[in-house]
Amino acid sequence: MASHEWRRRPTKFFGEVWVPFAQIELRASTGVFRQVLLQVDSGATISLLRRSMGALLGLSPERGRRVELRSVGGAVTPVCIHEIETRFDAEVQLTVPFAIAEVEHVPNLLGRLAVFDALRIEFDPRLTETRISLP
């Protein structure tokens, strides 16, 4: 079971808060896995990477399926969907759809699609950690 420590992040109105993060590995276009820190967001339908992270993985945002994502506030972010091999630990590897944003001003997120239905995700605010494992 992979265990990931939360991080403290400043907010505009609520001071610093604990936020769940996961250090996972994504397979680049070269076949090499690269470590990536993602905010775990149970409210996000799809996982999201900013443009520079997609470039680091060798993924062109223009090559995937083009869609527009809407945030809670209604902001629109153009993205292209790519299927990426994702390694959560030595035993857990899945193909996960990631939206590669055409912009930088979005967070790198681990969303629900293909992840939350396949894995057990446990948030423990007392320990400020998230555990990810097979069900």
Q: So what's the oligomer here?
A: single chain
Low-pLDDT parts are none
**CATH superfamily grouping:** Acid Proteases
Summing up helix and strand content along with how strands pair, one would put the structural category as: mainly beta
Number of strands: 12
Rg of Cα set? 15 Å
Helical coverage, percent range: under 10%
Principal-axes shape call: globular
What CATH architecture would you give? Beta Barrel
Q: What's the CATH C level?
A: Mainly Beta
Give the percentage of residues in beta strands.
Answer: over 45%
Mean pLDDT over the full residue set = 95
Could you say what the CATH topology is called?
Cathepsin D, subunit A, domain 1
Largest sheet: 7 strands, mixed
What does this structure look like?
- There is one protein chain.
- With 135 residues, this protein is mainly beta.
- The chain has one domain: Cathepsin D, subunit A, domain 1.
- It has one helix at residues 51-56, and strands spanning 2-5, 7-11, 15-19, 21-27, 33-40, 47-49, 65-70, 76-87, 93-101, 109-110, 120-124, 129-133.
- Strands 4, 5, 6, 7, 8, 9 and 10 form a seven-stranded mixed beta sheet that branches. It has a three-stranded antiparallel beta sheet with strand order 1-12-11, with no helix packed on it.
- A hairpin with a 5-residue loop joins strand 8 and strand 9 (93-101).
- The longest helix is centred in the middle third of the chain and has 6 residues, at 51-56.
- The mean pLDDT is 95.
